[in-house]
Amino acid sequence: MTGIPDRPGPPAHPSDLALDGGGPAIEAHLSGCAPCRWRVEAGRLAVERFEKDVLPRTLPRMRQRLQRRRWAWRGFWIGAPALAAGVVVLALQSPSKPTGGVEPGWTGVKGRAAAPALEIYVKRGDRVTRLEPGQRLRPGDALRWIVRGDRERYLSVESRDADGRVTRLFPGRTDAEAARVRPGDELPGSAVLDETPGSETLTAVFADKPFAIDGPPPPGAVILRVEIPKDATAGGPSR
Amino acid sequence: MDDKKIGELYRQAGALIFRRCLKLLGDPAAAEDATQEVFLKFMAHAAELDPGDGYLPWIYRVATNHCLNRIRDEARLEVRDPAMLPDLPEEAAAEVFPDRALGAQVLRRFDTDTQSIAVLVLCDGLTQDEAAGVLGLSRKTVGKKLRRFLVQARKFVARVGVES
Questions:
Q1: Distances (CA, A) of A90 to A108, B136, B149
Q2: Chain A stretch 173-202, residues whose beta carbon is closer than 8 A to a beta carbon of chain B
Q3: What does the alpha-carbon distance between residue A141 and residue A130 come to, in Å, rounded to a whole number?
Q4: CA B140 vs CA A195, B52, B145: distances in Å
Q5: What is the pLDDT of residues B111-126, one digit of tens each?
């Protein structure tokens, strides 16, 4: 039987991470190892390129983007004490106890601050706001999600429109299993709503162990579902 | 946080992020774009991170994940449906599957944690303990996913017909 080595290749060479860490042992190794000195030099050249070329060109834009984000997040943190009541947590379900349908409205999970949740943010034009209970979405709105809870879990998120079309929102469409997330993670990418009239139903499945997305939710999974009303056109009322 | 502090952090962490992204993407322009996106994520979490380790574990984890997603998304445009590809003699397969596209195809078959483990251990030379530390996984999970990756990746490459 072929064993899987801890690290393929010559065991005497430190990893990139170890090289970055430096120290007497690393210095001693480098003094006698040309390939590793080359690795360090390649990294140094990349840093030099960043400092001389990339940083001067991109720092002003980074500051602008961070300034815009700062304004968008300010409202979120001010509202944090009341956020638990508005968090998109609705219709907790256990796979063994189906509720038989989606319940409209919003429900805070009182006394269960550790329960997993998704906070939803809506970008409309250049404005980013937290999705509020009862708020209506419009075609063209882009949604982002922040994971909340007390521990790491595995998560999948999908959306179903009024025509019954299901779109996988997280993880990526080619991933077969739910992805591991931590509290505070902002899910990558965003979902932009199309013109299909009717509401969007978001379903998030949280579990403590990996699970196949196309299969049934595992026992003990927390299923969060919310129905978000959507106007037919981009110029419709916002609430 | 004032502009001066942002500049200091961008100089420190941005350089390390750029170095990481350049290694994975191989293209300075792509690495520059990726650096900005990853730095934005960094700033959202900076207060929770330990500057004592130079933010390295976080940078390795998040930059790797970001770049792998980019590689995977770009590869999706190049090879839409493997079943549509004609059968080729072995020696021609290498031309149709340049290394990068093949690497992306292989990685795409696995979950994001396994992709990161494969890159950290097989490309960056991290030990499984180091990879576990960077990714926040147990050593056992890293070993298990790495074994699965090696076995299944080898099968896939053998099926495609590219010489190792």
A1: 7, 30, 38
A2: 174-177, 179-180, 182, 184, 186, 188
A3: 12
A4: 47, 27, 9
A5: 888 999 988 888 888 8
